[in-house]
Design a protein that fits this description.
- The complex is a heterodimer of chains A (410) and B (178).
- Chain A has nine helices and 18 strands.
- With 410 residues, chain A is an alpha+beta fold.
- Chain A folds into three domains: 63-106; 139-279, no CATH class; 283-408, no CATH class.
- Chain A has a six-stranded antiparallel β-sheet.
- In chain A, strand 5 and strand 6 (228-230) form a beta hairpin.
- The radius of gyration of chain A is 26 Å and the shape is globular.
- Chain B has 178 residues and is mostly helical.
- Chain B is globular, with a radius of gyration of 19 Å.
- Chain B is 68% helix and 0% strand.
- Classes of the chains: A alpha+beta (410), B mainly alpha (178).
- The interface between A and B is large, with 77 and 76 residues.
Chain lengths: 410, 178
């Protein structure tokens, strides 16, 4: 058993710092009316048929309805009890999965449309360090950025396509925000999730070769509106993640967030949650196939999935089934990312993380309903169908027959 | 808290026991949530959910104390972060900063941002919510001794982070790690 060190006798924070901390409490007098309202709404016990307020959001089935009250009488439980919450949670997870699947099919990595025209690329100036450039590794500049209402946006960046609305093609580049740090709420109110972004010439040039299918970026901006997002000038306006660097290090220590000209942030996880971005970097698959496999499918019941990502940022999945270990091969250009089932803040090496596999294109995406997301963390066991290949493969410490994955079994 | 043991009848009804727990816990729970999630109405929603669970506990014969009820609120808060983040790891972590009420003092904000999540939580439970180490131990499901040791480290980290921020113009400024 470990012995905890004994803290010294003088274990108090400096009084001035303690006062500073207490003085920053965001729950001030302005919360008094909401607190009183909450107290009244949660305390009411109407004549023994108590039905506590579950949510004050507008709801067609508010507590206290005749049906709910009757149920409460019969069971002695509130109608929105644990089982109900569990059902709601399952529906919510299913809905989230459907959204992600939709993005998988309709996202910018689809194979048909091509960029309307190469985004305008002027002669590329070498980024010149400037005293005025925003730099997240510099506290003074970071403070100035925050005071100027700066917002850091994480999202998918892609060139505009002919199918995009003309207004969206105004800059040649579009960004779909996934999350924003700072005052970025308005960005999520736009009707079109893809917002024009004005990249400068050097950023556009650097992205030109790698953003054709969309890529995850972090944008720093003090002028971010749904109509136009303008990154701050300088090399730190648009940042990307380096999957190879992430795969070779642990999540907690990896500095995989970098500028487009290759300069790594010194403390990405402090100011940018960069480790999370990095964990979301997409890895290529070791085993992949092209075209639609021939032959007949077999059904497999996985007792466990084993994910592996090697130092070259290539991933694979092994499944333990009743028929033995199977190494899964996925349609070409499928990618793996860290599993959504893991909560942020973990510091395990990416190499051992459960992975989520998403198809990018190929016959699985051609309008059939077998498009899948295989999340080995969220779905540790699953039935799936695939085409045996009679060839062996290796995934980390597991070896077995390679199976061309078809779909999760319905 | 002592008042809860002096109800007028020796065997109070579930409603009365709930009312006692509610009176003892509500304001603490609401403030705990309001300090940690935006928009403000979510704090009210979550408070309502907390007392649904408290009601179930009371029906089962329990008499939850404040730290136990705050622990329920803490679990619901974490779930809320995840749900609103669409259950993705990326959005979950980024939304932590997005959903939390802003700390107005930029020095304190930077100091807190430089801490590990566990250190930040301990400091805020102590200095915002005014819980004792014993109460925090119940909330976090840890031993009081471990809480005291971690709190000691958190204080040191916070003080060091503030010192680092205040000397930001120094030529050999040390980068702060969470």
């Amino acid at each position: 058993m470990n012995t905890l060190p004994v803290p010294p006798a003088n274990d108090e924070l400096d009084p001035s710092l303690a006062a500073l901390l207490r003085g920053s409490d965001p729950c001030g007098a302005e919360h008094d009316s909401a607190l009183a309202r909450s107290r009244a709404q949660t305390a009411a016990i109407p004549g023994g048929d108590y039905a506590p307020v579950f949510s004050q959001r507008p709801s067609p089935a508010a507590p206290g309805t005749a049906r709910g009250t009757a149920l409460a009488r019969e069971t002695g439980r509130h109608p929105r009890s644990r089982n109900h919450r569990r059902a709601v949670a399952i529906l919510a997870v299913a809905a989230a999965g459907a959204v992600v699947a939709g993005v998988g099919v309709l996202g910018p990595w689809g194979d048909a449309p091509q960029p309307a025209a190469p985004p305008a690329v002027a002669p590329t100036p070498t980024p010149t360090p400037s005293e005025s450039y925003f730099n997240p590794d510099d506290n003074a500049r970071l403070n100035a950025f925050s005071e100027a209402g700066g917002v850091r946006i994480t999202g998918w960046l892609r060139p505009a396509l002919p199918s995009d609305a003309p207004v969206a093609r105004s800059t040649g580049w579009l960004l779909m925000p996934s999350a924003a740090l700072g005052e970025g709420e308005a960005l999520f109110q736009a009707t079109d999730p893809w917002l024009p972004i004005a990249l400068d010439a050097s950023d556009a040039a650097a992205l030109g070769d790698q953003a054709g299918e969309g890529m995850l970026v972090v944008v720093a901006s003090t002028d971010a509106k749904p109509s136009l997002i303008t990154p701050v000038p300088g090399p730190y306006g648009v940042l990307v993640s380096d999957p190879a660097r992430l795969a070779a290090d642990s999540v907690g220590e990896a500095k995989s967030l970098k500028t487009l000209d290759g300069t790594y942030l010194q403390r990405p996880d402090v100011e940018y949650n960069g480790t999370v971005l990095a964990q979301f970097a997409t890895f290529k698959m070791i085993y992949a196939y092209t075209g639609k496999p021939s032959g007949t499918t077999e059904r497999f019941k996985a007792k466990a999935f084993h994910s592996h990502t090697d130092a070259q940022a290539r991933s694979c999945i092994a499944a333990s089934t009743r028929q033995g270990v199977k190494i899964l091969s996925f349609p070409e250009r499928s990618t793996a990312s860290a599993s959504i089932a893991e909560f942020a803040g973990q510091e395990s090496p990416v190499a051992g993380y459960p992975l989520r596999i998403m198809p990018r294109d190929g016959w699985l995406g051609e309008g059939d309903d077998s498009t899948f997301i295989l999340d080995t963390g969220d779905t540790p066991t699953a039935e799936f169908t695939g085409f045996p290949t009679a060839t062996n493969g290796t995934c980390g410490e597991y070896s077995g027959e390679v199976i061309q994955f078809e779909a999760l079994a319905k | 808290m002592e008042g809860m043991t002096t109800l007028p009848r020796p065997a109070p009804s579930a409603e009365e026991r709930f009312a006692a727990v509610h009176a003892a816990c509500h304001d603490t729970v609401y403030r705990y949530l309001a300090r940690r999630i935006l928009p403000a109405h979510l704090a009210e929603d979550l408070t309502g959910e907390v007392f649904v669970i408290v009601w179930e506990k009371v029906l089962d014969g329990a008499h939850p104390q404040v730290p136990y009820v705050v622990a329920i609120a803490r679990n619901l808060l974490r779930n809320a972060y995840r749900v609103s983040a669409k259950a993705t790891k990326l959005r979950t972590a980024l939304s932590l900063a997005h959903q939390r009420p802003a700390v107005q003092n930029p020095l304190v904000a930077l100091g807190l941002a430089a801490l590990k999540e566990t250190e930040r939580e301990l400091l805020l439970l102590t200095y915002w919510d005014s819980f004792t180490s014993e109460e925090i131990a119940v909330i976090l499901g840890a031993s009081p001794g471990a809480v005291r040791v971690r709190l000691h480290r958190a204080r040191k980290s916070f003080a060091a982070a503030l010192e680092s921020e205040s000397t930001q113009h120094g030529p050999t400024r040390k980068a702060v790690r969470p």
